[in-house]
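User: quick one, fold this
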Amino acid sequence: MRSDGWAEDLLPEEREVPLLNLYLTTKRVEDIALRLVSLRQAFTTLLGSTLSRNHLFVAGKVLLGALVQANHMDEAKFLRTYKDFVDYLSDPSKRNDIERELAEAKIHHVNMIDVLFELVLFGLMTAQKSLMVHPGGFVERLYALLYSFLPTAANMEPEADRYLLLLNDSCDTLPPNRDLDTNALHYFALNFKFLNKISWRVGGDRGPGWP
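Assistant:
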């Protein structure tokens, strides 16, 4: 068991993402702070490219779409909500508003690691965080997106639950390497690993709007 003051022993990078850090610690992942710094740099570099951003948005639609189908949710509503979220996220004029809302949620970096893993996967989707909603803002759109592919935990289909566990378990593969090219390759490999693992579950005709 950790003492009440265990957080004081953490490095600054680990304190910024307490939920993700706790998860990785339970998985006995080493060099967590170094891995976090490395991955933040890699994602910043990758997402500086329009091609990489577009790849990420398409991959996200496919990955989340697997949950939509597994949970028998409304695919058309998901596609509309996802497009609205991506359009808002891609608007340079919204950058300051997004940063302000994330700061209110104690997210210190506008980065995939902090937003996807700390805020969404280990925060909102496990009911560890509850956020202030500004009408028409980032958090409102984020909640709308979550509700478009996830029912309440009690109603989640077993297939979707297994998919979420697969996503959770990917966290302990975060590489400690500081080399940005190496991390970029790892990121894309991890992304396609997800797609390959769920492709047999998705199957069938996805309908209009799917890649």
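User: anything notable?
Assistant: Residues 198-211 have pLDDT under 50 and may be disordered.
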